[in-house]
Amino acid sequence: MGRFLKGIVVGIGGVAPGLSGSVLLIIFGLYRQTLEAFGTLLKDFKKKVRFLFPLVVGMLLGVLLFSKIIHFALNHYEMPTRFCFLGLIVGTLPMVWKEVKKEGFFWWCYPVIVLAALAGFWFFRMNPNAFPQVTDPTLLQSVFLGTAVALTAIVPGVDPAVFLSTLGLYEMYVTALATLDLSILIPMVGGLAVGAVAISYGMSILFKKFYTITFSVIFGIFLSMIPNMLNESCQLGWNGASVMSVVLMVVGFVVSFVLGDFENIRKRF
Prior knowledge:
By secondary structure, the protein is mostly helical. It has helices at 2-13, 21-27, 31-39, 45-76, 78-91, 93-100, 109-126, 139-154, 160-166, 170-179, 182-209, 211-225, 240-260, 262-268.
């Protein structure tokens, strides 16, 4: 039951801009175990499935339930919603930074982080029209959407909304979930399943052999995504919408920061 409830929260992180399902898995202490289970699924298959089943079902439920709320909020209250997500993503920075230093930190990590941040900034911010928004996807595009979602769910700090928006897939993703468009969702699930196993296997190898440098790259990319949380509609002024936006940004920061320190808080009580 515990993994099922945590899976719901992780699923919310998979569809809400500013949250990351993989970061939430780290917070809940399930990331490495989940990565290993997906990456070596065929080894001790029944045991891996028993571990993954409640988590995955919870994640799917969280995505399906929360996608409608996200879809509504972005369409009717875009600026406050985006500022809330900005607070959420900034609040997770200490958690990701802690992972960077977990197995040792060296001077050369700083240039790696900077280079990764610059590369990510160019890809996500300076090159926004490289991939036009997909409105009528082909079968291959729907399968690729699933693989892209798997990548955002597995790689810590890669925000699904920013990544999918850059690839021109986010609006299609949220709309398909909100309307239960099976012509998109069924092939997407196929791409998600294959992508989850393949990417988990690759990430497991990277973490075992190059943990610090891998997380340094991830942290740099994570930093590069922060400016993308706001767009031209997010202009603060002296009005109620701006006040609400700032308040929600602070609330989002506090929520994600507290989640990031979840284990320490639990030990105190």
